[in-house]
Amino acid sequence: VNGVPKVWNWQINREMDFPYETARPWRQFAAVFNINRCIGCQTCTMACKSTWTFNKGQENMWWNNVETKPYGGYPQFWDSKILEKLGRQEWRGATYAGKTIFEQAPEGEVALGYLPEDREWTAPNIYEDTTPSWEKMVTLPIHRTWFFYLQRICNHCTYPACLSSCPRKAIYKRREDGIVLIDQQRCRGYRKCVENCPYKRPMYNSTTRISEKCIACYPRIEKGEVTRCIAACVGKIRLQGWVKIPEQAEPDSPIDYLVHVAKVALPLYPQLGLEPNIYYIPPRWVPRQYLKQMFGPGVDRAIENYTKPDQELLGLLQLFGTTRRIIHRFKVTSTHVIGYDDSKRELVRVPIEDPFYIRPVTFTNIT
Amino acid sequence: MVSLTECMRIGVLIAALIGASLLMTAYNLPTGILQQSSIESRWMPGSVPVFDAKSSDWQRALPSQIPLTRQNITQPMLTKPSTQFVVVRSLNNGSWIAFMLEWEASSKHSSTVRIQDFRDGAALQFPLKKGAPPFLGMGQKNSPVNIWHWKADWQEAIDSFFEDIQNVYPGMSVDYYPFAKVPYGVAKVTELDKTFSAGMGVGNPFSLSQYAFTPIEDLNAAGFGTLTTQPHQDVIGKGVWSEGRWKVIFARPMVTADPNDAVFEPGGTTSIAFAIWQGGNREVDGRKSFSNWHLVSIDKGERAAFPVTLRQGTILLGAALVGFGVGFSLYDRARAKAIAAEIGQRREKPSGLALASFLAICWVAFFYLVVTGFTGESFIVRNAVLVQGAIAFLVMVVTASLTRRLFKG
After folding, report:
1. Searching chain B, which residue's CA lies closest to the CA of residue A188?
2. Contact in structure between B103 and B123 (CB atoms under 8 Å)
3. Which chain A residues touch B202 with a CB distance below 8 Å?
4. Min CA distance, B364 vs chain A (Å)?
5. In sequence order, which residues have a C-beta less than 8 Å from that of residue B394 and are 6 or more positions away?
6. b/e for B158-175, b at 16 or more Cβ within 10 A?
7. pTM score, two decimals?
8. Residue A126 CA neighbour count, 13 Å, CB half
9. Do A167 and B225 touch (CB under 8 A)?
10. Cβ contacts of residue B102 below 8 Å, gap of 6+?
11. Chain B nearest C-alpha distance from A82 (Å)
12. Interface predicted TM-score (ipTM) of this complex, two decimals
């Protein structure tokens, strides 16, 4: 399209169309979710719900949700719906050769999208864990079904579709941390953000008649604390920090290390073209083709590196869920991993290998 | 010379014309000359009908049919044509000005609770600066516009009640609303903790629509994406949906203290543009039908408005028709008497007084029809200058023949 700025999206390794020029924040809020560790307990979901979305009009609103893949989704079938609309697309090596949702925008629209109706937002998780062979019962030892939990919050994208499709310019990306917010004063409830965000993170509030979305717990981040969903994680699957573009990656930044150095953490549906900033360590047991559709061409290497971690990565993986403060830097010694805050003060020191105890046989039932 | 049978024929013709006109009105067929590009805000004495779309005062206003096109200047666009036109009437009394918009909407959409529900809406746009109007797309930098936006859901909240989630989902179940007075019941919207209903907390007019005193929002804009609610709301009005049509009245004092409000000067002109949203078609934001700029000339009321309203006119016409009947029968009886007298070799003039008074009524009806036809206050048919002209012509033919007959005696 003429007159549309071209922006660089490192996740698809090419330039792409976007309605605005690139405006990267001073630093970008990011997190890595290790899918391999998630037990689907929904503590993150409830932590978010009880903090932000307990009021009237938010009954069906879950800024954080955990859905069971491949069948689950909140709203229902959000990813298969947008992928189907996008059509079959190809990667050529590390470069995306297909079209993004901005490049595939229909006439008169900024991006490809759809507006999920009320029934798609109700009853999240219902029947998600039901296996396709439940009627016959699964016969052991051959286990032909697979599933995994996908933890989802707003990706606070570098190229947000919600922001670019808002005709009011009521959505903004904060320069200080890259958090994407809906201005509750300017929003007029047009629901364009709901329609055009492929991850379906902006949600419509039936009572206030305007849209709301995950705010990355910005009042906590401003105080140096991680978000509620990350702090509450029982399985310690989440690590929050800041991400840079590959050329400026800092190896002592935990997120940069996982994303750019070890390359074990991958963006969700990078082919949509939004440069999302929540990164996932893909599950080891899931068919690779499915994972490649979801996380792009880096899946094989990510699982390889995650399965055989070096000392640095092994150490860093122990930092997940160890402190409610944001870890800006980390250092791995031969025995410990140390997390530092913004002013290089030590926040947490964790042993890489837990000490090994052998209990006397008389006390095996006591921990 | 007009015979009785001829008179009957003409009477049948008049009745047929009136019938056709009424049918055309009923089906809203364009029946005469419609103002296409300019709008006149007609001066009227007394108070402007702000809340009553059925008020006969609206018959004083010249209706203008404004063509609309799908918005295709900026995203999001309307990709298929939707509302084809809007009929606009305007009245003023020197201190208040009112506009009535009328458009076809096969069903009413006044709910915005479910995510897939969008409201019907209508808007007027006026430039703030004098001279050539600014860019149609909500004005431009240094040349802002004043927008009046009517919303069907706000109207519903005023007319009946504020529709909340439990009205749309009566079977819903909720565990608990923290901070509500009755946390385990269905909390009232007014009990909510506004910090966590952020739209209410920051005073978003949509979030506070349950408190709205007017269904019309008074706004300013200076280009795409700049639409801003005014701190002081001055526009009032009312929308009524019936039989597949919305009729919405927008009214405001012609001059306000707010420098960001459009100004209407008696005897002056201003530019105006229109937009219509059909909620059933998920029309919202830029997905709308809109018009180009048009000119409104604001009648000063120097020329006295025609003193006869629709109701008075109807009574007058009815009286004329009754007079016609009574007069004609009197005349006919007198004529029969005269003929009888002639046969009996006695010359007797027919009684002229009844005929003359009847004819006077007929002439008044004729002049009334002509005058109202030209002033656009035609009371038989909406906009039907031509049809009314034809009726007036027939009345004139009958009346003139009878008058000639009277004087020929």
Report:
1. B206
2. no
3. 184-185
4. 56
5. B10, B13, B14, B17
6. beeebbbbbeebeeeebe
7. 0.82
8. 8
9. yes
10. B86, B87, B88, B89, B245, B246, B247, B248
11. 18
12. 0.90
